Amino acid sequence: MAQVPPLEFQTYVANKKADPGAAGGFDYGYVADRQTRATFEKIAPVEYAIAAVVRAWKEWGRNEMLGHTVRVTENQFPRLHALNVKAAQTLGIPTPTLYVGQNPHLNAGTFGTNEDAFILLNGSVVDHFTDAEILDILGHECGHIQNNHVVYMTALYFLTYMASAFVQWFAYPARVALLAWSRRAEITCDRAGLIVVKDLQVSMKGLMKLAVGSKKLYEELNVDEYLRQYEDGKRGVGRLAELFASHPYVPKRVQALKIFSETALYREKAGLGPGGITMSECDARTHEIIKVIG
User: Fold this and answer.
1) Which positions are annotated as active-site residues?
2) Is 4 among the domain residues?
């Protein structure tokens, strides 16, 4: 069985308070992500839920998740290991532990605490995505670690998939707050993935593959045609279902990523030369895209 370092909520709190970047995040982070995390300490249900979840995760949650996975090392799936190392080094963080698990859904996740984090990559991702696209995904997950998202993501996962019905009802206010934050955090980490892979087309195609899920159709994907769905999706009551989703709808993520690619910050990190919009303008335009109401 895969082994994961122990999780201690007290350690998490102490390190978070000692880390000046814990609330502020990093220069590419979406401002609404940072602002929402800064308010969590003032919302008692969120803090109580996180404390309880980390304790439960330490006792049995991590073993439940990792009992049937395989740890990636230099000798076990070395190609994936090299991609994981590259993603972490590009963002300037220690290389996180990476596991591959059997799951047909095209997805990956980061769990644990900010100090003891690991990435779980579904095996289906390896079958459907190119190495460059996997690098983007690992960059996205490393972005969660770099921006101190991990304990909140673990709490949201636990409350959604592993807690009893009673606990889910009791912690409903915390779950709603975490879902709203999670949609903003995904924007931050889509940007991290792009910074790592430095290829907008790769990042956009990877996101679009999540929506299609068919190897036979990937080569026919048309970005411009796909983005028209963003305009159509802004109308109708059905859009409100996104309020209960952990991720923004994929067309919104693609559109937001295109805006980030226009920033001076990204152009500098990607070696594309001077020019570009400010991060303030980027965040303002992004807000108009990913907001659900208003």
Assistant:
1) 141
2) no
